[in-house]
């Protein structure tokens, strides 16, 4: 099955990135959010990202041709005619369940509905619909235009046909599918990465090493393009916190409970680049100033 049209709900860092890679693959995209301001900001971000890829000769198609495939929208009414709807809203299970119920009512009978959640069980989201066999997880990684892997997650009632269509879609947009056959909290990559992030935060709490040195060491010794804290600021500390709490509530395992330092930063509103302060501080132009 070739995907010709996609609705992306949520125009933040992840939603905007998903819209971009779909448009780059020749797919018609409807990008939904609750305000014109959010949509304008997303389109500006996509345009900037496309320009950078063109400058690096990773894209040959004209910028405008790609951008014209993305239609901003304040409603999900376009869901009735798309092949695939991807939810990329805030990592809160009640918000996501409400969105899945709305999408189920708005989408055509053959539309697949996916979530970009990093941790919430697909089975629970599918239960909010009348089509659980057509619900799956499509977990992209940030920054979406650059990261090649996408987890394709089967819920308890996701059909094999839906999972295969998900695999095909990921390949269609030039990414590599990572098939997740069981709906476990955190899926695969986060189950591996999250313990390292937690340990890094605890090392800072205990005064063992600084944020800067941990990130530097991971880049130089582990081959990472970005350190744990640099990545955390880009993704958002509130997103990391939400993912850990979701895994903690799902499993009851205390190893997933967010460290005190992360909890305090979230309460203080230090959420990363989007607020100008997270693990690091940022200048108004988005450049980093110093560690905090």
Description of the molecule:
The chain is of the alpha/beta class. It has two domains: 5-180, 3-Layer(aba) Sandwich (Rossmann fold), CATH 3.40.50.720; 190-291, N-(1-d-carboxylethyl)-l-norvaline Dehydrogenase, domain 2. Helices cover 44% and strands 16% of the residues. It has eleven helices and ten strands. The protein has helices at 13-24, 36-55, 63-67, 93-106, 122-126, 160-172, 189-205, 211-222, 228-235, 237-251, 260-267, and strands at residues 5-9, 28-32, 70-73, 84-87, 112-115, 135-140, 149-154, 176-180, 280-282, 288-291. An eight-stranded mixed β-sheet has the order 3-2-1-4-5-6-7-8, sandwiched between helices. Strands 9-10 form a two-stranded antiparallel ribbon. Helix 1 links the parallel strand 1 and strand 2 (28-32). Helix 1 packs across helix 2 (36-55).
